[in-house]
Every structure is written in C-alpha cells, then in structure tokens.
Amino acid sequence: MTVYSPEYVGSLERRIASLEAEVQQLRTASVQTNTSLEGLKSRLPTTSLGSPKFLSRAFTVWGHYFVAQVIIAVPIYCLIFLIGALASYGQY
Predict the structure, then answer these.
(1) Is the pLDDT of residue 92 over 70?
(2) Burial of 56 (0-12, 13-18, 19+ CB in 10 A)
(3) For residue 1, what is the enclosing H or E element?
C-alpha cells in the first residue's frame, strides 16, 4: 500500500478543483456558442446552396448564375437598342 504525503494530496485536490472550474467555464462557453450559432442559423436565408443533394446545389448555382447574367445583360441590351434606334432615326 502506497502512502502519499499530505502536501501531494493537497496539490492534487487543488488541481482537481482548478480542472473542475475550467470544465465549468468550457461548458458555459459551449452553451453560449451554441446559442449564438442558433441565432446565426435563423438569420441565414433558406436556399438550396447548403443542400446535401448534388443536383439541387447544381441547379441552385445555375439559377443564381442565370439571374446574374440577366441583370448584367438587360441594361447592355437596352443601351444597344437605344443607340441603334438613335442611329436609324438620324438616317431618315
């Protein structure tokens, strides 16, 4: 049977107490992090970009690309139409 000195046992008890306090702090931080993550999730838009299905993500990306192209192309086409209309109006 091993006998430990009172100083050694005291140091182990202090270490256990400090570890228990650290565990409690980590649990509190974990709860706060989970709460803030839930708040962030509620603010994110619901889109299929995060879907686990490949085709759903692929068509979502294609849809965003198509909308971006329309937003870019419509003003350019309107400008070309306006320039063409003005040029043809000046010829007659």
Answers:
(1) no
(2) middle
(3) none
